[in-house]
Protein backbone atom coordinates (compact mmCIF):
# COMPACT_ATOMS: atom_id res chain seq x y z
CA UNK A 1 0.00 0.00 0.00
CA UNK A 2 1.16 3.54 -0.73
CA UNK A 3 1.82 5.92 2.16
CA UNK A 4 -1.44 7.65 2.97
CA UNK A 5 -2.15 10.65 5.15
CA UNK A 6 -4.46 9.51 7.94
CA UNK A 7 -7.26 11.25 9.80
CA UNK A 8 -9.01 10.51 13.08
CA UNK A 9 -12.20 12.10 14.37
CA UNK A 10 -12.95 12.44 18.08
CA UNK A 11 -16.63 13.21 18.62
CA UNK A 12 -17.03 14.77 22.03
CA UNK A 13 -20.56 14.73 23.38
CA UNK A 14 -22.86 12.94 25.77
CA UNK A 15 -25.76 13.71 23.42
CA UNK A 16 -24.34 11.35 20.79
CA UNK A 17 -23.67 8.54 23.27
CA UNK A 18 -27.12 8.87 24.83
CA UNK A 19 -28.83 8.53 21.47
CA UNK A 20 -30.45 11.94 21.71
CA UNK A 21 -28.57 13.26 18.68
CA UNK A 22 -27.70 11.44 15.47
CA UNK A 23 -24.12 12.28 14.52
CA UNK A 24 -23.62 13.36 10.93
CA UNK A 25 -20.22 15.01 11.31
CA UNK A 26 -18.30 11.78 10.75
CA UNK A 27 -19.79 11.21 7.33
CA UNK A 28 -19.40 14.84 6.30
CA UNK A 29 -15.77 15.00 7.39
CA UNK A 30 -14.95 11.63 5.80
CA UNK A 31 -16.22 12.80 2.42
CA UNK A 32 -14.43 16.14 2.70
CA UNK A 33 -11.17 14.38 3.60
CA UNK A 34 -11.46 12.10 0.55
CA UNK A 35 -11.33 15.22 -1.61
CA UNK A 36 -8.11 16.48 -0.03
CA UNK A 37 -6.42 13.08 -0.02
CA UNK A 38 -6.69 12.30 3.69
CA UNK A 39 -8.12 8.95 4.75
CA UNK A 40 -10.25 8.75 7.86
CA UNK A 41 -9.06 5.56 9.51
CA UNK A 42 -10.42 5.90 13.04
CA UNK A 43 -13.16 7.63 14.97
CA UNK A 44 -14.25 7.72 18.58
CA UNK A 45 -17.23 9.00 20.44
CA UNK A 46 -16.43 10.03 24.01
CA UNK A 47 -18.29 11.77 26.83
CA UNK A 48 -17.77 15.31 28.16
CA UNK A 49 -15.30 14.13 30.82
CA UNK A 50 -11.95 15.88 31.21
CA UNK A 51 -9.66 12.92 31.87
CA UNK A 52 -11.13 10.95 29.01
CA UNK A 53 -10.84 13.82 26.54
CA UNK A 54 -7.22 14.58 27.51
CA UNK A 55 -6.17 10.95 27.32
CA UNK A 56 -7.97 10.30 24.03
CA UNK A 57 -6.49 13.38 22.36
CA UNK A 58 -2.97 12.48 23.48
CA UNK A 59 -3.35 8.88 22.31
CA UNK A 60 -4.80 9.81 18.93
CA UNK A 61 -2.49 12.69 18.05
CA UNK A 62 0.47 10.31 18.31
CA UNK A 63 -1.22 7.65 16.20
CA UNK A 64 -2.70 9.64 13.28
CA UNK A 65 -1.47 12.39 10.98
CA UNK A 66 -4.47 14.64 11.59
CA UNK A 67 -6.89 14.54 14.50
CA UNK A 68 -10.19 16.40 14.39
CA UNK A 69 -12.51 17.04 17.30
CA UNK A 70 -16.13 18.13 17.18
CA UNK A 71 -18.22 19.39 20.07
CA UNK A 72 -17.76 21.00 23.44
CA UNK A 73 -16.62 24.47 22.38
CA UNK A 74 -19.74 26.43 23.34
CA UNK A 75 -20.17 28.76 26.35
CA UNK A 76 -21.75 26.45 28.95
CA UNK A 77 -20.54 24.32 31.86
CA UNK A 78 -20.33 21.17 29.73
CA UNK A 79 -18.13 22.84 27.09
CA UNK A 80 -14.69 21.81 28.25
CA UNK A 81 -12.94 20.89 25.02
CA UNK A 82 -10.60 23.92 24.88
CA UNK A 83 -9.53 23.35 28.49
CA UNK A 84 -8.85 19.67 27.77
CA UNK A 85 -6.87 20.33 24.59
CA UNK A 86 -4.73 22.88 26.45
CA UNK A 87 -4.11 20.33 29.19
CA UNK A 88 -3.26 17.62 26.66
CA UNK A 89 -0.59 19.88 25.14
CA UNK A 90 0.59 21.33 28.48
CA UNK A 91 -0.32 24.84 27.36
CA UNK A 92 -2.19 27.72 28.98
CA UNK A 93 -5.38 29.15 27.52
CA UNK A 94 -5.60 32.80 26.53
CA UNK A 95 -8.28 35.04 25.08
CA UNK A 96 -7.65 35.23 21.34
CA UNK A 97 -8.22 38.82 20.19
CA UNK A 98 -9.69 37.86 16.80
CA UNK A 99 -12.31 35.57 18.36
CA UNK A 100 -13.00 38.09 21.13
CA UNK A 101 -13.64 40.79 18.51
CA UNK A 102 -16.24 38.60 16.78
CA UNK A 103 -17.98 37.77 20.05
CA UNK A 104 -18.09 41.40 21.21
CA UNK A 105 -19.78 42.48 17.97
CA UNK A 106 -23.04 41.22 19.44
CA UNK A 107 -23.87 43.14 22.62
CA UNK A 108 -24.89 41.33 25.80
CA UNK A 109 -25.16 41.90 29.57
CA UNK A 110 -21.81 41.42 31.38
CA UNK A 111 -22.62 37.99 32.79
CA UNK A 112 -23.73 36.68 29.39
CA UNK A 113 -20.71 38.24 27.67
CA UNK A 114 -18.44 36.56 30.21
CA UNK A 115 -19.92 33.15 29.33
CA UNK A 116 -19.69 33.83 25.60
CA UNK A 117 -16.07 34.91 25.92
CA UNK A 118 -15.24 31.38 27.06
CA UNK A 119 -15.46 30.60 23.34
CA UNK A 120 -12.51 32.95 22.67
CA UNK A 121 -10.13 30.91 24.81
CA UNK A 122 -7.53 28.94 22.84
CA UNK A 123 -4.28 27.26 23.89
CA UNK A 124 -1.00 29.13 23.34
CA UNK A 125 0.53 28.36 19.93
CA UNK A 126 -2.85 27.73 18.32
CA UNK A 127 -3.74 28.80 14.81
CA UNK A 128 -7.38 29.67 14.13
CA UNK A 129 -9.75 27.71 11.89
CA UNK A 130 -11.95 30.15 9.99
CA UNK A 131 -15.69 30.01 10.57
CA UNK A 132 -17.52 31.23 7.45
CA UNK A 133 -20.82 31.37 9.35
CA UNK A 134 -19.46 34.48 11.07
CA UNK A 135 -19.42 32.95 14.56
CA UNK A 136 -16.41 32.23 16.78
CA UNK A 137 -13.53 30.41 15.07
CA UNK A 138 -12.17 26.98 15.86
CA UNK A 139 -8.47 26.39 16.42
CA UNK A 140 -5.61 24.11 15.44
CA UNK A 141 -2.77 23.16 17.74
CA UNK A 142 -0.12 20.80 16.41
CA UNK A 143 -1.98 18.20 14.36
CA UNK A 144 -5.26 18.62 16.28
CA UNK A 145 -8.16 20.56 14.72
CA UNK A 146 -10.81 21.67 17.20
CA UNK A 147 -14.20 22.39 15.66
CA UNK A 148 -17.81 23.02 16.62
CA UNK A 149 -20.29 20.17 17.04
CA UNK A 150 -23.27 21.90 15.41
CA UNK A 151 -23.19 20.43 11.88
CA UNK A 152 -23.77 23.72 10.05
CA UNK A 153 -20.84 25.36 11.85
CA UNK A 154 -18.62 22.27 11.67
CA UNK A 155 -19.19 22.00 7.92
CA UNK A 156 -18.30 25.67 7.46
CA UNK A 157 -15.05 25.17 9.35
CA UNK A 158 -14.17 22.00 7.42
CA UNK A 159 -14.66 23.86 4.13
CA UNK A 160 -11.67 26.06 5.02
CA UNK A 161 -9.21 23.20 5.60
CA UNK A 162 -7.01 22.83 2.54
CA UNK A 163 -5.03 19.90 1.25
CA UNK A 164 -1.85 21.87 1.95
CA UNK A 165 -2.79 22.54 5.55
CA UNK A 166 -3.66 18.87 6.15
CA UNK A 167 -0.72 17.44 4.21
CA UNK A 168 -3.11 15.48 2.02
CA UNK A 169 -2.17 13.33 -0.97
CA UNK A 170 -4.09 12.31 -4.05
CA UNK A 171 -7.88 12.48 -3.71
CA UNK A 172 -9.55 9.18 -2.85
CA UNK A 173 -11.95 8.19 -5.63
CA UNK A 174 -14.54 5.48 -5.80
CA UNK A 175 -16.49 3.38 -8.29
CA UNK A 176 -19.56 1.41 -7.43
CA UNK A 177 -21.98 -0.97 -9.07
CA UNK A 178 -24.93 -2.98 -7.84
CA UNK A 179 -26.43 -6.36 -8.76
CA UNK A 180 -29.30 -8.58 -7.69
CA UNK A 181 -26.86 -11.17 -6.41
CA UNK A 182 -26.36 -12.18 -2.79
CA UNK A 183 -23.08 -11.56 -1.03
CA UNK A 184 -22.70 -15.32 -0.79
CA UNK A 185 -22.89 -15.67 -4.57
CA UNK A 186 -20.19 -13.10 -5.29
CA UNK A 187 -17.92 -13.90 -2.37
CA UNK A 188 -15.35 -16.10 -4.13
CA UNK A 189 -14.86 -14.15 -7.40
CA UNK A 190 -14.87 -10.90 -5.43
CA UNK A 191 -12.02 -12.14 -3.24
CA UNK A 192 -10.05 -12.98 -6.39
CA UNK A 193 -10.57 -9.49 -7.81
CA UNK A 194 -9.50 -7.94 -4.52
CA UNK A 195 -6.33 -10.07 -4.51
CA UNK A 196 -5.37 -8.73 -7.95
CA UNK A 197 -5.73 -5.10 -6.78
CA UNK A 198 -4.30 -4.81 -3.28
CA UNK A 199 -4.07 -0.97 -3.46
CA UNK A 200 -7.82 -0.63 -3.98
CA UNK A 201 -10.29 -1.24 -1.19
CA UNK A 202 -13.16 -3.41 -2.45
CA UNK A 203 -16.23 -3.63 -0.24
CA UNK A 204 -19.56 -5.41 -0.65
CA UNK A 205 -22.73 -4.13 0.98
CA UNK A 206 -25.95 -6.13 0.95
CA UNK A 207 -29.26 -4.38 0.41
CA UNK A 208 -32.85 -5.46 0.88
CA UNK A 209 -35.52 -3.77 -1.22
CA UNK A 210 -39.13 -4.38 -2.18
CA UNK A 211 -38.02 -5.71 -5.56
CA UNK A 212 -35.42 -8.10 -4.19
CA UNK A 213 -32.14 -8.33 -2.36
CA UNK A 214 -28.72 -7.73 -3.78
CA UNK A 215 -25.28 -6.35 -3.19
CA UNK A 216 -23.54 -3.07 -3.90
CA UNK A 217 -19.85 -3.34 -4.72
CA UNK A 218 -17.64 -0.36 -3.97
CA UNK A 219 -14.03 0.23 -4.98
CA UNK A 220 -11.96 2.99 -3.39
CA UNK A 221 -8.47 4.13 -4.30
CA UNK A 222 -6.40 6.94 -5.73
CA UNK A 223 -5.53 5.47 -9.16
CA UNK A 224 -8.43 6.26 -11.49
CA UNK A 225 -7.17 3.99 -14.27
CA UNK A 226 -6.90 1.02 -11.92
CA UNK A 227 -10.36 1.77 -10.53
CA UNK A 228 -11.78 1.68 -14.07
CA UNK A 229 -10.10 -1.66 -14.81
CA UNK A 230 -11.41 -3.11 -11.58
CA UNK A 231 -14.93 -1.79 -12.18
CA UNK A 232 -14.94 -3.57 -15.53
CA UNK A 233 -13.81 -6.82 -13.88
CA UNK A 234 -16.62 -6.54 -11.34
CA UNK A 235 -19.16 -5.78 -14.09
CA UNK A 236 -17.99 -8.81 -16.07
CA UNK A 237 -18.31 -10.96 -12.97
CA UNK A 238 -21.92 -9.84 -12.58
CA UNK A 239 -22.65 -10.51 -16.27
CA UNK A 240 -21.07 -13.96 -15.81
CA UNK A 241 -23.81 -14.71 -13.28
CA UNK A 242 -26.41 -13.81 -15.91
CA UNK A 243 -27.27 -10.56 -14.15
CA UNK A 244 -27.36 -6.94 -15.27
CA UNK A 245 -25.02 -4.61 -13.35
CA UNK A 246 -26.69 -1.32 -12.38
CA UNK A 247 -25.61 2.05 -11.04
CA UNK A 248 -25.29 1.88 -7.27
CA UNK B 1 -22.37 8.99 40.98
CA UNK B 2 -24.10 5.65 41.36
CA UNK B 3 -22.52 2.55 39.89
CA UNK B 4 -23.74 2.24 36.32
CA UNK B 5 -23.46 -0.62 33.88
CA UNK B 6 -21.46 0.61 30.91
CA UNK B 7 -21.65 -0.17 27.21
CA UNK B 8 -19.22 0.35 24.35
CA UNK B 9 -19.94 0.01 20.64
CA UNK B 10 -17.26 -0.95 18.12
CA UNK B 11 -18.44 -0.16 14.60
CA UNK B 12 -16.40 -2.25 12.17
CA UNK B 13 -16.49 -1.04 8.61
CA UNK B 14 -14.53 0.86 6.00
CA UNK B 15 -17.83 2.07 4.53
CA UNK B 16 -18.52 4.19 7.62
CA UNK B 17 -15.00 5.66 7.71
CA UNK B 18 -15.05 6.46 3.99
CA UNK B 19 -18.29 8.39 4.31
CA UNK B 20 -20.14 6.08 1.94
CA UNK B 21 -22.57 4.93 4.62
CA UNK B 22 -24.15 6.98 7.40
CA UNK B 23 -24.05 4.97 10.61
CA UNK B 24 -27.33 4.78 12.50
CA UNK B 25 -26.54 1.79 14.69
CA UNK B 26 -24.94 3.89 17.43
CA UNK B 27 -28.07 5.94 18.00
CA UNK B 28 -30.33 2.91 17.86
CA UNK B 29 -28.23 0.91 20.32
CA UNK B 30 -27.82 3.89 22.66
CA UNK B 31 -31.57 4.33 22.94
CA UNK B 32 -32.16 0.60 23.41
CA UNK B 33 -29.52 0.47 26.15
CA UNK B 34 -31.17 3.38 28.01
CA UNK B 35 -34.28 1.20 28.33
CA UNK B 36 -32.39 -1.69 29.90
CA UNK B 37 -30.30 0.49 32.21
CA UNK B 38 -26.99 0.30 30.38
CA UNK B 39 -25.15 3.53 29.56
CA UNK B 40 -23.23 3.79 26.34
CA UNK B 41 -20.06 5.59 27.36
CA UNK B 42 -17.74 4.94 24.43
CA UNK B 43 -17.86 4.12 20.75
CA UNK B 44 -15.26 3.55 18.07
CA UNK B 45 -15.30 3.23 14.33
CA UNK B 46 -12.50 1.06 12.98
CA UNK B 47 -11.55 -0.39 9.60
CA UNK B 48 -11.79 -4.02 8.44
CA UNK B 49 -8.21 -4.78 9.51
CA UNK B 50 -7.47 -7.84 11.62
CA UNK B 51 -4.84 -6.45 14.01
CA UNK B 52 -6.90 -3.35 14.70
CA UNK B 53 -10.09 -5.30 15.38
CA UNK B 54 -8.35 -7.77 17.71
CA UNK B 55 -6.56 -5.05 19.66
CA UNK B 56 -9.65 -2.83 19.94
CA UNK B 57 -11.85 -5.69 21.17
CA UNK B 58 -9.29 -6.71 23.77
CA UNK B 59 -8.85 -3.15 24.99
CA UNK B 60 -12.57 -2.41 25.19
CA UNK B 61 -13.73 -5.66 26.77
CA UNK B 62 -11.47 -4.96 29.74
CA UNK B 63 -12.65 -1.37 30.07
CA UNK B 64 -16.45 -1.69 29.73
CA UNK B 65 -19.13 -3.97 31.15
CA UNK B 66 -20.65 -4.77 27.75
CA UNK B 67 -19.02 -4.42 24.35
CA UNK B 68 -21.07 -4.57 21.17
CA UNK B 69 -19.74 -4.89 17.65
CA UNK B 70 -21.58 -4.24 14.40
CA UNK B 71 -20.43 -5.19 10.94
CA UNK B 72 -18.18 -7.67 9.23
CA UNK B 73 -20.16 -10.87 9.76
CA UNK B 74 -21.29 -11.48 6.18
CA UNK B 75 -19.96 -14.11 3.74
CA UNK B 76 -17.34 -12.13 1.76
CA UNK B 77 -13.57 -11.59 1.92
CA UNK B 78 -13.90 -8.39 3.99
CA UNK B 79 -16.07 -10.09 6.64
CA UNK B 80 -13.45 -10.97 9.22
CA UNK B 81 -15.12 -10.08 12.49
CA UNK B 82 -15.73 -13.66 13.71
CA UNK B 83 -12.11 -14.59 12.99
CA UNK B 84 -10.89 -11.52 14.88
CA UNK B 85 -13.12 -12.10 17.91
CA UNK B 86 -11.93 -15.72 18.11
CA UNK B 87 -8.33 -14.53 17.96
CA UNK B 88 -8.96 -11.87 20.62
CA UNK B 89 -10.28 -14.56 22.98
CA UNK B 90 -7.72 -17.21 21.96
CA UNK B 91 -10.50 -19.55 20.80
CA UNK B 92 -11.03 -21.65 17.70
CA UNK B 93 -13.98 -21.12 15.37
CA UNK B 94 -16.44 -23.92 14.71
CA UNK B 95 -19.55 -24.28 12.58
CA UNK B 96 -22.52 -23.73 14.89
CA UNK B 97 -25.24 -26.28 14.01
CA UNK B 98 -28.15 -23.90 14.71
CA UNK B 99 -26.78 -21.22 12.37
CA UNK B 100 -25.82 -23.84 9.78
CA UNK B 101 -29.38 -25.18 9.81
CA UNK B 102 -30.79 -21.74 9.07
CA UNK B 103 -28.31 -21.13 6.24
CA UNK B 104 -28.96 -24.53 4.64
CA UNK B 105 -32.70 -23.87 4.52
CA UNK B 106 -32.07 -21.79 1.42
CA UNK B 107 -30.55 -23.92 -1.34
CA UNK B 108 -27.49 -22.77 -3.26
CA UNK B 109 -24.69 -24.15 -5.47
CA UNK B 110 -21.82 -25.66 -3.42
CA UNK B 111 -19.44 -22.72 -3.87
CA UNK B 112 -22.08 -20.21 -2.81
CA UNK B 113 -23.14 -22.39 0.12
CA UNK B 114 -19.50 -22.59 1.23
CA UNK B 115 -19.28 -18.79 1.33
CA UNK B 116 -22.58 -18.46 3.15
CA UNK B 117 -21.53 -21.05 5.73
CA UNK B 118 -18.76 -18.65 6.78
CA UNK B 119 -21.58 -16.91 8.64
CA UNK B 120 -22.14 -20.02 10.78
CA UNK B 121 -18.64 -19.87 12.27
CA UNK B 122 -18.55 -18.77 15.91
CA UNK B 123 -15.80 -18.99 18.55
CA UNK B 124 -15.93 -21.86 21.06
CA UNK B 125 -17.89 -20.97 24.22
CA UNK B 126 -20.13 -18.54 22.34
CA UNK B 127 -23.84 -18.14 23.03
CA UNK B 128 -26.04 -17.14 20.10
CA UNK B 129 -27.88 -13.84 19.75
CA UNK B 130 -31.28 -14.46 18.18
CA UNK B 131 -32.05 -12.90 14.84
CA UNK B 132 -35.80 -12.33 14.52
CA UNK B 133 -35.43 -11.53 10.79
CA UNK B 134 -34.87 -15.26 10.28
CA UNK B 135 -31.30 -14.88 9.02
CA UNK B 136 -28.09 -16.16 10.64
CA UNK B 137 -27.73 -15.39 14.32
CA UNK B 138 -25.11 -13.22 16.00
CA UNK B 139 -23.12 -14.47 18.96
CA UNK B 140 -21.92 -13.47 22.41
CA UNK B 141 -18.61 -14.49 23.90
CA UNK B 142 -17.78 -13.23 27.38
CA UNK B 143 -19.01 -9.64 27.53
CA UNK B 144 -18.74 -9.11 23.76
CA UNK B 145 -21.88 -9.12 21.59
CA UNK B 146 -21.23 -9.58 17.89
CA UNK B 147 -24.01 -8.33 15.62
CA UNK B 148 -24.73 -7.57 11.99
CA UNK B 149 -24.03 -4.16 10.49
CA UNK B 150 -27.16 -3.92 8.33
CA UNK B 151 -29.44 -1.74 10.51
CA UNK B 152 -32.58 -3.86 10.04
CA UNK B 153 -30.76 -7.00 11.18
CA UNK B 154 -28.81 -5.25 13.92
CA UNK B 155 -32.01 -3.79 15.35
CA UNK B 156 -33.67 -7.20 15.34
CA UNK B 157 -30.73 -8.67 17.26
CA UNK B 158 -30.67 -5.80 19.77
CA UNK B 159 -34.38 -6.33 20.47
CA UNK B 160 -33.55 -9.75 21.94
CA UNK B 161 -30.96 -8.50 24.46
CA UNK B 162 -32.60 -8.33 27.88
CA UNK B 163 -31.71 -6.29 30.93
CA UNK B 164 -30.87 -9.55 32.72
CA UNK B 165 -28.48 -10.69 30.00
CA UNK B 166 -26.71 -7.31 29.97
CA UNK B 167 -26.68 -6.84 33.74
CA UNK B 168 -28.49 -3.53 33.33
CA UNK B 169 -29.71 -1.28 36.13
CA UNK B 170 -32.52 1.20 36.32
CA UNK B 171 -33.63 2.63 32.96
CA UNK B 172 -32.07 5.97 32.03
CA UNK B 173 -34.80 8.59 31.67
CA UNK B 174 -34.67 12.09 30.30
CA UNK B 175 -36.52 15.38 30.46
CA UNK B 176 -36.04 18.18 28.01
CA UNK B 177 -37.22 21.71 27.43
CA UNK B 178 -36.36 24.40 24.90
CA UNK B 179 -36.20 28.20 24.99
CA UNK B 180 -35.35 31.05 22.66
CA UNK B 181 -32.31 31.91 24.75
CA UNK B 182 -28.70 31.60 23.67
CA UNK B 183 -26.36 29.18 25.39
CA UNK B 184 -24.39 32.21 26.59
CA UNK B 185 -27.45 33.58 28.37
CA UNK B 186 -28.21 30.41 30.28
CA UNK B 187 -24.63 29.33 30.95
CA UNK B 188 -24.26 30.58 34.54
CA UNK B 189 -27.65 29.57 36.02
CA UNK B 190 -27.41 26.24 34.19
CA UNK B 191 -24.06 25.50 35.80
CA UNK B 192 -25.63 26.22 39.21
CA UNK B 193 -28.51 23.81 38.55
CA UNK B 194 -26.04 21.12 37.41
CA UNK B 195 -24.00 21.59 40.60
CA UNK B 196 -27.09 20.94 42.73
CA UNK B 197 -27.83 17.65 40.89
CA UNK B 198 -24.53 15.84 40.29
CA UNK B 199 -26.28 12.51 39.55
CA UNK B 200 -28.16 13.97 36.61
CA UNK B 201 -26.45 14.81 33.36
CA UNK B 202 -27.58 18.26 32.17
CA UNK B 203 -26.72 19.18 28.60
CA UNK B 204 -27.45 22.27 26.50
CA UNK B 205 -27.77 22.09 22.72
CA UNK B 206 -28.06 25.21 20.59
CA UNK B 207 -30.43 25.26 17.64
CA UNK B 208 -30.82 27.61 14.70
CA UNK B 209 -34.23 27.86 13.07
CA UNK B 210 -36.04 30.18 10.70
CA UNK B 211 -37.87 31.79 13.63
CA UNK B 212 -34.78 32.34 15.75
CA UNK B 213 -32.01 30.63 17.65
CA UNK B 214 -32.28 29.03 21.02
CA UNK B 215 -31.16 26.20 23.24
CA UNK B 216 -32.56 22.82 24.15
CA UNK B 217 -31.84 21.68 27.69
CA UNK B 218 -31.73 17.96 28.37
CA UNK B 219 -31.55 16.16 31.71
CA UNK B 220 -30.70 12.47 31.93
CA UNK B 221 -30.72 10.22 34.96
CA UNK B 222 -32.40 7.28 36.63
CA UNK B 223 -34.29 9.09 39.44
CA UNK B 224 -37.59 10.26 37.96
CA UNK B 225 -38.48 12.41 40.99
CA UNK B 226 -35.15 14.24 40.84
CA UNK B 227 -35.54 14.72 37.07
CA UNK B 228 -38.93 16.34 37.65
CA UNK B 229 -37.52 18.69 40.30
CA UNK B 230 -34.68 19.67 38.01
CA UNK B 231 -36.98 20.19 35.03
CA UNK B 232 -39.01 22.62 37.12
CA UNK B 233 -35.83 24.50 38.11
CA UNK B 234 -34.83 24.81 34.47
CA UNK B 235 -38.32 25.98 33.48
CA UNK B 236 -38.26 28.60 36.23
CA UNK B 237 -34.86 29.79 35.04
CA UNK B 238 -36.30 30.26 31.54
CA UNK B 239 -39.32 32.14 32.90
CA UNK B 240 -36.90 34.31 34.91
CA UNK B 241 -35.43 35.46 31.58
CA UNK B 242 -38.93 36.51 30.47
CA UNK B 243 -39.17 33.61 28.03
CA UNK B 244 -41.69 30.83 27.57
CA UNK B 245 -40.27 27.31 27.96
CA UNK B 246 -41.47 24.92 25.22
CA UNK B 247 -41.43 21.19 24.60
CA UNK B 248 -38.12 20.16 23.04
Describe this structure in words.
The structure is a homodimer of 248-residue chains. With 248 residues, chain A is an alpha/beta fold. Chain A folds into 2 domains: 5-166, Molybdenum Cofactor Biosythetic Enzyme, Chain A (3-Layer(aba) Sandwich), CATH 3.40.980; 173-247, ACT domain (Alpha-Beta Plaits, 2-Layer Sandwich). Helices cover 39% and strands 27% of the residues of chain A. Chain A is built from 10 helices and 12 strands. In chain A, the strands form 3 sheets. Chain A has a 6-stranded mixed β-sheet, sandwiched between helices. The longest helix of chain A is centred in the C-terminal third of the chain and has 17 residues, at 224-240. Chain A starts with a strand and ends with a strand. At the A-B interface, α1, α2, β2, α6 and α9 of A face α1, α2, β2, α6 and α9 of B.
Give me the CATH superfamily of the largest domain in chain A.
MoaB/Mog-like domain
- Return residue spans of chain A where pLDDT drops below 50 for at least 5 consecutive residues: none
Q: SS-based structural class of chain A?
A: alpha/beta
Query: Measured on Cα atoms, how large is the radius of gyration of chain A?
Result: 22 Å
Order of helices and strands of chain A: EHHEHEHEHHEEEEHHEHEEHE
Helix content of chain A: 25-40%
Share of residues in strands of chain A: 25-35%
The first-to-last residue Cα distance of chain A is: 26 Å
CATH structural fold name of the largest domain in chain A: Molybdenum Cofactor Biosythetic Enzyme, Chain A
Tell me the name of the CATH class of the largest domain in chain A: Alpha Beta
Amino acid sequence: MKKVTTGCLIIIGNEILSGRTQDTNLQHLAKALNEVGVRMVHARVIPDVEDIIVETVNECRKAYDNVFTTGGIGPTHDDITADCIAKAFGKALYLHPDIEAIIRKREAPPEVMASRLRMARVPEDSVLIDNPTGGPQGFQIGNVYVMAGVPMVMQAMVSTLTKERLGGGEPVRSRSVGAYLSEGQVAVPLGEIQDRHPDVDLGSYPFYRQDGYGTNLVMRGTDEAELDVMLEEVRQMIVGFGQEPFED
